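Re: the multi-chain job from yesterday

Posting the exact lines I submitted so nobody has to dig through the queue logs.
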Amino acid sequence: MKPLEMSSIAEVWRSALTIIADSLHGYGQDLQIWFPWGKTWRGHDQKGILPPTDLPADLLKAKGDRFAGRFWVCHPQGGVSWLLCVKPSSPQAPGLAGWAPTPRDTAALVLLAEFLRLESLLGLAVRVLENRASERQGHWDRVRNLAVTVGRHLGLAPAELVDLEMTALLHDLGKIALPNEILEESRPLTPAERRQVEGHSLVGAAMIREIPGLERVADYVQSHHETPDGTGYPRGLAAGDIPLVSLIVGAVDAFDAMTHYRPYATERTYKESIQEMIAQTGRFDDRVLWALQDVLKRLGILDTHPMVNPPTTEGPAERPRPATPSATPVPESPPQGGRTLPPSPPAAPTDGPQPAPGAGTRASSRSTPRKGTSRRSRRPGAGRPADPSHTHGRTSP
Ligand SMILES: [Fe+2]
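And the result, structure tokens for all chains:
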């Protein structure tokens, strides 16, 4: 799973680190929090994720010890053995042995432990899905980042953004239940197969509903193929009954499929793809499309071409590419009928998630078939515009 510096989940880390850093202020600065993750240790500081590392095993037993010029303390909480460390504020500063966490510190660490487990489960689910559909590697990261950015742009509350992020990651979880024969199939689906594919939103929602606390996310996942014109599935909901989170995920997911997996992906700019979505009246929420377009405009990539699978050595020379649509823009006024927007958030960090695998370059040729082009792009009829909300196979939203 990619780093989560730009995600909503990362904001939970940042706020918890701020609470504990305040508590440890008298002992030192530059707080780092480490926790065991498999056979390595992962760390966060207030700027983001630290590189995984090996720490001496006996450090776990340390109580206020100095190590590598820092004070360290082990503080088990929420089922996790947390290692906290700070740089001493002075040579005479006391070690951390005398530090007593406040109830606020304890609550922050318990919350972090819960999010750590959640992050691990999300990563596991995404890896399983990516193993089923290798061509879509990176899809979930792009959808997650872009959906959260659009959600911020539309003024969603922090709790809604967390739900949005989880929905974006898990929306197609139900495809785990689909046989490979259908996922890999290049011919048109039979009506029965189509119904089976369309069942993935119900299957995914049922799976997620089993996880305590994710009931809302399950509802959002169930509705991610509902459309404002009432022709979506599984329930054919009317526009006003579809959660905004589901509308965002549905639109961003379709947009990523159009711009990375459609036969014409390298032929169209982001703007042209959005305009095709706008032309499909009733298929997507107007507020979401406006926000999506504005986000890309502010990133300076609206008029550029998407990055897709890298060319092979047989391909023509590459040319410099713009960034992927994965950074955090600042919001401005909403469209007619949109929500009132909050003040502009801080600028996106420069050390955010890296472009997804296969997203760093794109073929500059728009007419020569390349190796590595998705199977879908080699399908009969691949040259015609496709329904961006088509649900068949790997490229479906
Ligand atoms: Fe889906």
